[in-house]
Amino acid sequence: GQSLEQPSEVTAVEGAIVQINCTYQTSGFYGLSWYQQHDGGAPTFLSYNALDGLEETGRFSSFLSRSDSYGYLLLQELQMKDSASYFCAVRGGGGGFKTIFGAGTRLFVKA
Amino acid sequence: DGGITQSPKYLFRKEGQNVTLSCEQNLNHDAMYWYRQDPGQGLRLIYYSQIVNDFQKGDIAEGYSVSREKKESFPLTVTSAQKNPTAFYLCASRATEPNNSPLHFGNGTRLTVT
Hints:
Helix content of chain A: under 10%
Order of helices and strands of chain B: EEEEEEEEEEE
Distance between the termini of chain B: 36 Å
Distance between the termini of chain A: 41 Å
Strand content of chain B: over 45%
Radius of gyration of chain B: 13 Å
Number of strands of chain B: 11
Strand content of chain A: over 45%
Oligomer: heterodimer
Largest sheet of chain A: 6 strands, mixed
Largest sheet of chain B: 7 strands, mixed
Mean pLDDT of chain A: 95
Low-confidence stretches of chain B: none
């Protein structure tokens, strides 16, 4: 089966850097994604890693180590609007079509 | 503009009734998904469909049914067999090429069953 673990909550101050970790178990692996969701809204895509290493997209970066079944999302220069829930998601079974999400990390950004 | 439309935004039903949630996309995506989200929790996969006329059970398919007769549409029926149907339901779609195509989500339907 597939499962993901990520911290339930993280708090940081405006302007700081925060790292949200994700470990996963999957029978097949096609990639690890990150999504952001504000309260009451739909999740929106942030980043995707299929290969080991760091992917950078503006203030957000995502890292993957397939040998460790581990990834993280790095948010730099935190802004108040970054307060949201962040989900890691793994594409695994079903020929890579099955996508399972972690329980989410609630990020609180304080002034 | 291309996107995914879920309707209605809020839905109220009495216990024991079946209810169908609509999901339509005009993104020309082959793959479509239904997720359930409970307060403060992650998204749990109910069903997914790789292509028209084909769909697979996710992790929590019991009490739900789907159909995929058209590429654009993937309706979800919450049956009376679903023990705790009150939740936020999210539909998503994804292109199959390129391989790193992300999920695109609709705005969700909040279902309340009393």
